[in-house]
Specification:
The protein is mainly alpha-helical. The protein contains four helices and no strands. The radius of gyration is 15 Å and the shape is elongated.
Length: 101
């Protein structure tokens, strides 16, 4: 398993958890919301970069699909992250011989 593949899943899940925690803290007007926002933004940047590294390293998907994933990550990162995690990533990782068909 390459380093990018090992970073995506934990950083994605931690980012999602930090984002939900930040939203809860901000809605309830509790202290610490700003810290969780910063943490979730940094974790989001890490998993977006690792996902794009996986995508552009794959020969299984076309360049048009790679561009669509890139635009999706830049505009709708959480929604695209969920879609990539559930549907796109297994196809990409088969190319790395991590997942077998």
């Amino acid at each position: 398993m390459n380093r990018s593949s090992s970073l995506f899943r934990p950083t994605f899940l931690l980012s999602l958890l930090a984002m939900l925690t930040a939203a809860f803290l901000k809605i309830m007007h509790l202290p610490g919301g700003k810290i969780f926002i910063v943490i979730s933004v940094l974790l989001t940047a890490v998993w977006v970069v690792s996902a794009l590294y996986e995508i552009y390293g794959s020969t299984r998907i076309s360049m048009q699909e790679k561009i669509m994933w890139t635009i999706g990550f830049l505009l709708l990162s959480i929604i695209t992250g969920l879609l990539y995690f559930l549907t796109g990533r297994p196809r990409v990782l088969r190319d790395y011989k991590i997942l077998k068909r």
